[in-house]
Amino acid sequence: MTSKQPLVRRIIIAFTLMTLVVSGGFSLGIVAIVHFIEEHLVTKEMSEELDSILQKDLAKGIPPRLDLKTQLFASHMPGYEIPKNFIGLDEGFNEVVGDTEAYYVFIRDTPQQRYVLVQEQAEFEARENALFAVVFAGFILTGLAAWLLGWLMAQTIIAPLARLAQQVRHRDQLLTIAPNLAPEYPEDEVGHLAAAFDETLGQLRSSLERERLFTSDVSHELRTPLMVIASSAELLEASVLDERGRNQVDRIQRATAEISDLVETFLLLARATTHPNPTGGSLTLEQVARELAERWAPRFAEKGLAFNLVIEEHNPQLLHGSFLSTVMSNLMRNALHYTEHGEVRLLLSARGFRVEDTGQGVPRAQQEDIFKPFVRGSEARGEGLGLGLSLVKRICAHQRWQVRMYSLPAGGSCFEVNLT
């Protein structure tokens, strides 16, 4: 599992743990070496001293000649009885440490006797404990120093990354030409990261610029033929036509108005920044809804569907007509394509509007992906490319509106747009 700790903290922990392991190993090594040398040297010294006592003193029948810190005990020698605290020890070197006393005890067993040579070593034990205390204090101080050095090292290592992250975070204007970041950093991993970001940003900037220019140019060039179509439709409407011809002219006018709204929407989006930027307007939700209801009602009637505009609550908020019209039109077109029988309802509320239909609905697993570009439902119909709902999502993000889709209990789908 990937650690979610900050990089600075991970560097400090790694550096501190490494130092503690190394210093701990040295500390334990010092303790082990002290004990090994102590046992080896004391055993050799006391063994030689016991040999000297047995050969030079006891063999000649004279009392053992010992210094003030050394005592001799034997199991079968009168006056040299072994004290209780030394009974039961193993042969060879032993160390007996009490609350106030400390002894080296060397035991040798012979067929006739057990000899116990005892040497008082309280002073050496005190010095040994002082040495161990110094080693332990050094271990603790090494850990604290490692933490401090690790923190300083982490700050030094992370500083270029933090600086790069700050520079990247403030490059919100992707279409604005800005100097590359890589020349500011050395030829190391951070410099390579900055170079990779510059390359990626350059590709993204070029792609966005091409998209912006394409959208702007196409939208601009479409205005002239749209004006020709609109004026021609007005001339046809003024002429004498039968009912079928007048219906065709009405369809041309509706389509022209819809394309004009889309052209205006694309131009506004092409000029927009990459961040949400709500644009004010002069139309209310009810005005846009009534205009679109009048435009779309004949299409629903041609398919045999009932269409109802329901005003649950009034919303006096002034909105951008082109954006709102495009969002509402795409949702109504989506409902028209995917509803074979029943009705479609456009419901207005104080917070926004809903488009409800009695169609097949969208499986729950696809409801999150339905707003992605080129994604169409499992019951897709017609020759659409799956861009209508993607455009809806993009406009809502630009205007800071919220759009969501869910299934209705009685069947069908509901697309809800929150405008507040």
Q: Short summary of the structure?
A:
Keywords: Kinase, Membrane, Phosphoprotein, Transferase, Transmembrane, Transmembrane helix, Two-component regulatory system. The chain has 7 helices and 11 strands. With 420 residues, it is of the alpha+beta class.
Write the layout of secondary structure elements.
Elements: H1 7-57, E1 70-74, E2 92-97, E3 102-109, E4 114-120, H2 122-169, H3 189-238, H4 243-271, E5 283-284, H5 285-302, E6 306-311, E7 318-319, H6 321-338, E8 343-348, E9 352-357, H7 388-399, E10 402-407, E11 413-418
Parallel strand pairs: 6-8
Antiparallel strand pairs: 1-4, 2-3, 3-4, 5-7, 8-9, 9-11, 10-11
Helix pairs in contact: 1-2, 3-4, 4-6, 5-6, 6-7
Keywords:
transmembrane helix; 3 domains; Sig_transdc_His_kin-like_C; alpha+beta; 54% helix; histidine kinase; Helix Hairpins; transferase; 4-stranded antiparallel β-sheet; 7 helices; Heat Shock Protein 90
What shape does the CA trace take?
rod-shaped
- SSE string, helix = H, strand = E? HEEEEHHHEHEEHEEHEE
> Can you identify the CATH superfamily of the largest domain?
Histidine kinase-like ATPase, C-terminal domain
State the major sheet.
Answer: 5 strands, mixed
Distance between the termini: 41 Å
Low-confidence stretches: none
Number of helices: 7
CATH level-3 fold name of the largest domain: Heat Shock Protein 90
Radius of gyration: 46 Å
Count of the domains: 3
The percentage helix is 40-55%
Task: Classify the oligomer.
Answer: single chain
The tally of strands reads: 11
Instruction: Summarize model confidence as the mean pLDDT.
Output: 82
Report strand order across the widest sheet: 6-8-9-11-10
Q: How much strand content do the residues show?
A: 5-15%
